[in-house]
Amino acid sequence: MKQRRKPIASLSLDLDNQWSYMKTHGDEGWESFPSYLNLLIPRVLEFLDQRDLKITFFIVGQDAALEKNTAALKAIADHGHEVGNHSFLHEPWLHLYTEEQINTELAIAERHIEQATGQRPICFRGPGFSLSRTVLQVLARREYLCDASTFPTFLGPLARAYYFMTSKLSKEELEKRKQLFGKFQDGLRPLKPYRLRMDAGSLVELPVTTMPVFKVPIHASYILYLGVFSPMLAMLYFRCAIALCKLFRVQPSILLHPLDFMGCDDLPELAFFPAMNLPSYKKVAMMSKIIRVLTDNFTVLTISQHARQMAKAEDIPVMHPSAIAL
Question: Which residue ranges traverse the bilayer (predicted)?
Answer without folding.
Answer: 222-244
